[in-house]
Amino acid sequence: MRTSSKLVLATAAICGGTFATVALAAGGDLGQAEKQATNWTAIGMFGVFVLFTLWITKWAASRTKSAADFYTAGGGITGFQNGLAIAGDYMSAASFLGISAAVMATGFDGLIYSIGFLVGWPVVTFLLAERLRNLGKFTFADVAAFRFAQTPVRVFAASGTLVVVAFYLIAQMVGAGQLIKLLFGLDYMVAVLLVGVLMMVYVLFGGMTATTWVQIIKAIMLLGGATFMAFMVMAEFGFSPEAMFAKSVQIKTDLAAQSGKSPEEAAKIGFSIMGPGGFVKDPISAISFGMALMFGTAGLPHILMRFFTVPNAKEARKSVLWATTWIGYFYVLTFIIGFGAIVFVLTNPGFLDAQGGLIGGSNMAAVHLANAVGGNIFLGFISAVAFATILAVVAGLTLSGASAVSHDLYDTVFKKGTADSASVLRVSRITTVGLGIVAVLLGIAFEKQNIAFMVSLAFAIAASANFPVLLMSVLWKGCTTRGAVIGGFLGLISSVALTVVSPAVWEATLGNPKGSAWFPYTSPALFSMTIGFVGIWLFSILDNSKRAEQDKAGFLAQQVRSETGIGAAAASSH
Amino acid sequence: MQADLTQRIAAHPKYQELKSKRSSFGWVLTIAMLVVYYGFILLVAFDKELLATRIGEGVTTWGMPIGLAVIIFTIVITAIYVRRANKEFDQLSDDINREVLQ
User: Fold this and answer.
1) How far apart are CA A551 and CA A544, in angstroms?
2) Largest Cα span, chain A
C-alpha cells in the first residue's frame, strides 16, 4: 500500500508539473534539481570523454591557422559529418531528458511536441541551405548583407545573432548546473565553471574543427545510447508497439485507480496517453508555437554557420538530409524511451523518493530508465552523454557569437573588410574568452530563475528577426537595406517584447498575479514574424533612396550566384 | 563576379530552366510540408477524438501511425528534394558553368 500511494503521488507530481514546464521550455529547461549522491562511474566516463575531446582539440589546433579554418574548419567537412554535427547541435540534453519525460507524463502530447522541432528542416533544405552555401562565407550576415549596405545589415545580423545566442546560452548553462547536481552529484558552480572552461578550450584552440568533431562524437554517443535503451524496451515487448502501449495504459489506469478515481475515470485517464491532451490549449498558441519552431530552425545562427563548413551546395543538401534523418530517428527513440519509462520507472519504488516523486525530479525519466535496462555502468554512460551534450552545444553557440563579433562587427563594420586574417583570429579568440566569462556569469545569475521561456524565446527571435531578413534578401528583388534593417529590428523587438508580457515571463518569472499577462499566447511568433515580414516589405517599397536602387540592381548578380554557385568557390578561401 | 559574366549566365536558357524548375519545386514541397504539419496541428486542436480513436481491438490509436507518418514524411520529402537537386539541378549548373566559362 505504501508503494502504491508513492506511485500515485509520483505520477500526480509529474503530470501536474512537468509538462507545463517542458512545453514552454521548448526543450530548454530542466527546472530546479536536487543534488544527488556523487556518481563516480558517470564522472569517470565524462572524464574519458573530456580527455578524448581535448586530444581532438590538440589535433584540430594544428590545423587551425587562418580565419577560414577557425570559422568553417577550412570548408573540409563532408555532408554526412556535417549532418551529424547539425543533429548534435539540435539534440540538446533538454530535448533528450525533457521530451522523454514529457512522453512519460502525457504520452501522445510528447510526440506532438517533438514533431514541431523536426518540421523546420525541410523548409531549411528547400529554401535556404544551398543558397546559404553559395552566397556565404563565415556567417549568415554574409548572405543577408550580400547586396546591401554592409554596416547597417551587419549590425542588425550581429544583434540578432548575439541575442539568440545569449538566451540559448543561459538555458544551456543553467541546464548544465541542474544536470550536474542530478547526474554527477556535484555542485551547480562546478558545472557552470567546467562548461565555461572546457568550451573555451575547444573553441579557442580548435575552432570550428574541434567544435564540429566534439559535436559529432557526442551525437554518435547520444544516438547509440538512446538506440540501446529503445531496443531494450521494445525487446521486452517482443518488438510489438501494441504490447508496449497496452502495458503503459494499464499501468496509468492502475495508478489512477489507486489514487481514488472510479474505474471509469481511471480507465479514461489511463487511455489519455494514447491521444492528444492539454498540450494544444488554443489553436492560436499551437500555430504560433509551431511557427516559432518551424521557422526558428531556419534562423538559428549556430545552425546556419554549419552550412559554411561543407565544400559545396551538394554537400550542404546532403548534410540537411542526414540531419533530418538523425533528428527524426532520435524523436522516435525518445518516444519509445518515454513509454519505457512508464513501464520500468513508474512501477519501480527504487526510483522514487520519500516524497513520492521521481528521485531527482521528473526530468530523470530517461536516466532512471538507463539504470533499469542497462545497470549502473550504462547509467553512468547516459549521464556522461547528457552532460557532454550541453558542453558541445555551448561550444557551437559561442563560436557563432564569436564569428558575429569578429567577422561581422570587427572586420566588416570597423575595418571595412581590410583586417588581416591574424587580427580577425585574435578578435575571435578575445570574444570567445569574453563570451565564456559572460556565459559563466549569466549561468550564476540565473541559477534560481525560472528560465522555462528562454529556448522558445530564442526560437521566436530567430523566426521573427533572422529568418525574414534572410529569406527576403535572398528571394525578393525589391528588398532594400532600409527595409531589411528596420523590418528585422521590428521582428527582434516585437518578439522580445511580446515574450516579456506573455504568461511565461510576466507571471511565472516576474511574479505578477496570474491572468495579468497582457499577451495571452504561448509564443509570439505568429505576430512578431508577421511584423518582421510586413516591416521589411513596407519599408522596402517606401524606400526611394539612392541606396535602394543600388540594392535592387545588385539582385541579379546575387541570384545568379545563389542559383549556380558560380563564384562561390572563392568564398571558403581554400 | 564581373557584370558581363552575370549577364551571360542570366541570359543562358539553362539558367532560366534551372531557376524556374528549382523555384517551383522548392515552393511546392514547402507548401506540402506546411499543409501536412499545420493539418496535423489543426487536427490536434479541433478533432482530438479522431486521433484518440482505436484502430482495432487493441489500445493503439490512429494518432500513433499519423504522428509517425508526419515524421517519416518530413524525412522523405527532404530526401526527394535532395535527390533531384543533386542530380538534375547540379547537372544544369555544371552545364551552365562549362558553357559560359569556357
Assistant:
1) 11
2) 80
Question: A559 and B3 in contact by Cβ < 8 A?
Answer: no
Report ipTM (2 d.p.): 0.94
Is residue A359 included in any domain, yes or no? yes
Closest CA to A485 of A166, A150, A165, A167: A150
Tell whether A194 is covered by a domain.
Answer: yes
Residue pair B77/A122 in contact (Cβ under 8 Å)? The answer is yes
Closest CA to B20 of B5, B7, B10, B33: B10
Chain A CB contacts of B96 below 8 Å: 564, 566
CATH value at residue A30: 1.20.1730.10
Number of domains in chain A: 1
Residue A23 and residue A173 in contact, taking contact as beta carbons nearer than 8 Å: no
- The Cβ-side half-sphere exposure at B64, using a 13 Å CA radius, reads 20
Spatial contact of A337 and A226, defined as CB atoms under 8 Å apart = yes
pLDDT in tens, A57-106: 999 998 888 888 888 988 889 999 999 999 998 888 878 888 898 899 89
| Cα–Cα dist A370/A222, whole Å | 12
Contact check, Cβ <8 Å, B44/A280: yes
Structural domain span for residue A428 = 11-235+271-569
* Ordered DSSP codes for B4-37: HHHHHHHH-HHHHHHHHHHHHHHHHHHHHHHHHH
Domain residues of chain B, as ranges?
3-101
The Cα A429–Cα A426 span in angstroms is 5
Q: What pTM value is reported for the model?
A: 0.89
Contacts of B1 in chain A (CB under 8 A): 557, 560-561, 566-567
Contact across the interface for B6 and A556, Cβ inside 8 Å = yes
Number of other CB atoms surrounding residue A449 within 10 Å: 12
**3-state class (DSSP) for residue A164:** helix
pLDDT at position A573 over 50: no
- For B8-33, write each residue's pLDDT tens digit: 888 888 899 999 999 999 999 999 99
DSSP character at residue A272: G
Say what angle helices A555-564 and A546-553 make with each other, to 10 degrees: 30
Half-sphere exposure of A148 (CA within 13 A, CB side): 30
- The answer to whether position A254 is within a domain reads no
> What angle do helix axes A454-461 and A481-500 make, rounded to 10 degrees?
160
d(CA A447, CA A22): 18
